[in-house]
Amino acid sequence: MKCPFCNATDTAVVDTRINEEGDVVRRRRRCTVCDKRFTTYERADVQFPLVVKKNGARMPYAREKLLASLELALRKRPVTAEAIDAAVAGIEERLLASGEREVSSQQLGELVMAELKRLDKVAYIRFASVYRNFEDVHAFSRVIREVRKEVTPEENALS
Question: What's the pTM?
Answer without folding.
Answer: 0.62
